[in-house]
Amino acid sequence: MIVKAHSAHPGTSELVGQAIQRSVRECNLPEGVFSLVFDAQHSIGQALVADHRIKAVGFTGSQRAGLTLMKIVAARREPIPVYAEMSAINPVVLLPQALAERGAVIADAFIASLTLGAGQFCTNPGLILAIEGPQLAAFEHAATTALSATPAATMLTRGIYAGFCEGVEKLLAQPRVELLGRGGRVSVFRRRPRCSPPARRHSWPTQNCVTRCLARHP
Predict the structure, then answer these.
(1) Is 122 a catalytic residue?
(2) Over the stretch 143-192, which tens digit does the pLDDT of each residue have?
(3) Which ranges of 6-95 would DSSP assign to H, the alpha helix?
(4) Which member of 14, 27, 78, 85 is catalytic?
(5) C-alpha span between 78 and 114 (Å, rounded)
(6) Which of the residues 26, 27, 101, 122 is marked catalytic?
(7) Residue 203: predicted pLDDT
(8) pLDDT averaged over the chain?
(9) Can you give the residue ranges of every domain in the chain?
């Protein structure tokens, strides 16, 4: 097994690698059964995936990087499986009866999950599907209130933060997207048939935020 450490947390990667090496020795396994490599760019990872001695790939990260690895694998003479988790949307369906019975509770849980790990967890909800009505309006109000009490959090890397800001700009550029609220520079959007106000620009690392889209049919 060859593991490529992420450049955002090399120290943590080294500690984990050392722990695995100790386990390898204690289990009397061959020393070469595990290797940890470092690379500030993407060249080593891409070279590993292209090497004919690699027989499978596990990846978690951005959609762009994951699709790049899959393209390299597809071009190999011997294609191999790629187990990739990248940019999950995690849609949530809100039914009217559930909102009527426990809408405020669901709103609190939604915001807690939405902002978990500054929105960088694979399980963060990314899309809500719901029927327009008073129950949904009450949910939006409760969610926005909970959001306003949520402090900002620091994202893992400058690149992730830059990608987030780019995503916010793209959302707000859509004529049918409305900004519902912010809290500690955290944002929730709703699709509506009118334009939203311009987005504020923030600088790394003191201003951080998380964004998701509440999509609605016109």
Answers:
(1) yes
(2) 999 988 888 888 888 888 888 888 888 888 988 888 887 766 545 556 55
(3) 10-26, 43-50, 63-74
(4) 85
(5) 40
(6) 122
(7) 29
(8) 82
(9) 2-86, 91-214
